[in-house]
Amino acid sequence: MSLSIRNRVLAGVLPWILPVVLLLAWQTGAQLGWITARVLPAPTDVVAAGWRLTVSGELWFHLKSSFERAAVGFVIGGGIGLALGFATGLSRWLSLLLDSTLQMVRNIPHLALIPLVILWFGIDETAKIFLVALGSVFPIYLNTYHGIRNVDPQLLEMARSYGVKGFALFWHVVLPGALPSILVGVRFALGFMWLTLIVSETISATDGIGYLAMDAREFMQTDVVLVAILLYAVLGKLADLCAKGLELWWLRWHPAYQRGEGV
Amino acid sequence: MTEQSTSWGVGIRARNLQRHFGNLTVLKGLDLDIRAGESLVIIGRSGCGKSTLLRLLAGLDQPDGGQLEFTGETSGTSDHSVRMMYQEPRLLPWKTVIGNVEIGKVESARAKFALHEVELDSKARHWPASLSGGQKQRVALARALAHRPELLLLDEPLGALDALTRSTMHRLIENLWQEHGFTLVMVTHDVSEAVMLADRVIVLDGGAIGLDVSIRLPRPRVATDPAFVGYEARLLEYLTGVPAEAPDETVSKHKRATLLPESGYLAISN
Ligand SMILES: Nc1ncnc2c1ncn2[C@@H]1O[C@H](COP(=O)(O)OP(=O)(O)O)[C@@H](O)[C@H]1O
Ligand SMILES: [Mg+2]
């Protein structure tokens, strides 16, 4: 009994030991001058830089730009991926027409298109949104297609024999059946979205977190660079939590997310 | 016997029904008449084509030859309410129990009543994943009942359930059949279940009807009734090809002597 409590406390504490030790070592090293501030400023300096940017409003300004880019790109790319997935998943003919081409195109890493995208759109907003959208299309397309194709045929047969057809069949049977897979696609797409955003903002921008980092690099403000990196990490985590939240709500019927009682 | 009116159920007339899968002939010229409101149980060895026949009756598949038509008083309307219950409950896991019963544009009051009929009112707002196997099949039964079927087809719906749950389900199905008056066609591999529920048992054999036995026992039936045991023995004997060992020789002889003429089974094995 007491042993199990001790084990539980230990299990709660253990994962934190290494980060805390590293953080302390970093702080001590920086304070004692073993690590120069150019390479790695002390954690307290990073926090201070973050606070300074927050107070001056700069942080929110760049955050907003990045967030808008990410959201617009994701909605466009995700929407296209979803539409294509529905089309090929629901129609055998469209699947024959489109799927092999899409499978081929998806093998091109979208970041490899950057030079081409710059040639097409220059280095303005459109180029970044285009890249983010491109990064979100395929994870969502693939998982939507896969999800629809793998809806339990027995359930489809049952629903049809109970007179469910057309849009009702799609809405009540096909879509919910494909949803777990679609949400996996959403999570992958969110990951790609941040990655693409970081790369495209680092290449060229006049605002956004990537710009914040590149601008700080020119003035050798390593602490601000670290703030920008942390911001990306936090935003990535937030996006993932949102996706998880959606799963918890939309898949609450799923045994893996279940607590017994219904709605 | 069956007291319910035959006005609700629909009958079936099948002539020379055929069904092939590649060069495997599953049904070769099957003739079958089912009275409106009758309770017919189909048994037979595994893989003999019971599900295949039921899917034809349900209209899920089309026969490769022969005729299949509905008969009876309501046969004037072309759109018959034929509902099938499968071995698996086939509930939509993302809909609550009541949501599942409402599938196919069923009014919520009727769905509630159907759920009440299978004694699952209390589970209306639960997810299917939280139900036991027997409860899931009862929801599937409620879903079928909510459509007021004229013909209810059951394909080994109790195969996966334990003995106690099965016998509860037998009573439930029998009561609902008597109240609603639909035509009941059920597939089972359990001879005792067949004798419990059937007005008539047919044994599918070699792609046609091998044995056709009317079960003339009053309802509710008791599995320990000697006449009940006699029917069971008769069916088992046909299925296994071995004369059934009766526990008491004298009872057995007596039973078989009386059973043969009165049960009126006829073998139309090809
Ligand atoms: N869709 C199908 N395609 C090919 N063969 C099938 C199909 N459905 C059933 N069969 C075959 O037909 C035979 C009868 O099957 P079935 O009617 O399911 O038997 P059961 O009496 O056990 O329900 C089996 O040999 C089975 O393998
Ligand atoms: Mg079967």
Overview of the molecule:
The complex is a heterodimer of chains A (263) and B (270). Chain A is built from 10 helices and no strands. By secondary structure, chain A is an all-alpha fold. Chain A has 2 domains: 1-35; 42-257, MetI-like fold (Orthogonal Bundle). In chain A, helix 6 (125-149) runs antiparallel to helix 8, helix 8 (166-203) runs parallel beside helix 9 (209-218) and helix 8 packs antiparallel against helix 10 (222-250). The model of chain A has no long low-confidence stretch (mean pLDDT 90). Chain B has 270 residues and is α/β, with parallel strands linked by helices. Chain B contains 8 helices and 9 strands. Chain B has helices at 50-58, 97-101, 108-117, 133-145, 163-180, 191-197, 226-240, 249-263; strands spanning 11-21, 24-34, 39-44, 65-71, 82-85, 151-155, 183-187, 200-205, 208-214. In chain B, helix 3 crosses helix 4, helix 6 crosses helix 7 and helix 7 crosses helix 8. Chain A binds chain B through residues 154-155, 157-159, 161-164, 172-173, 176-177, 179, 251-255, 258, 260-263, and chain B through 58-60, 83-84, 86, 88, 90, 92-97, 103-105, 125-130, 143, 147. The structure holds adenosine-5'-diphosphate (ADP) and magnesium ion.
| Hetero groups | adenosine-5'-diphosphate, magnesium ion
Second rung of CATH, namely the architecture of the largest domain in chain B: 3-Layer(aba) Sandwich
Question: How many separate structural domains of chain B?
Answer: 2
| Biggest beta-sheet profile of chain A | none
Mean pLDDT of chain A: 90
Describe the biggest sheet of chain B? 6 strands, mixed
Radius of gyration of chain B (CA) equals 19 Å
Relevant CATH superfamily of the largest domain in chain B = P-loop containing nucleotide triphosphate hydrolases
- H and E string of chain A: HHHHHHHHHH
Q: Summarize this, please?
A:
The complex is a heterodimer of chains A (263) and B (270). With 263 residues, chain A is mainly α.
